[in-house]
User: What shape does this take?
Amino acid sequence: MRRLLNSFRFACNGIRYAIHTQPNFRIQLVFLALAVLMGFIFKITQLQWTALILTSSLVLILEIINTSIETLMDFITKEYNPEAAKVKDTAAGAVLIASIMSVVIGLIIFIPYIF
Assistant: This one.
């Protein structure tokens, strides 16, 4: 039981680290809060909630993975390394793609309620 509790504590430490050190993570949390608020205001369907939760979770998960990859690469080498830059850039690209798709899905969900 103690190992399980420690696992949760370590995971929460990682989330706290992302919140405190990653401005993009905080921005994404703000947009998530706005989307959830809009979901309650417009009374979106269960399927729409599912899409909203899945896409938002994917963005946050990828942002944390990106943060861990960047941290690892910075640990491995403090100097500029073109191969390390490729690793960091592709991880950031994954977050960007997920973020764009999340916005698109948000627009698909909310535009009919607005217009």
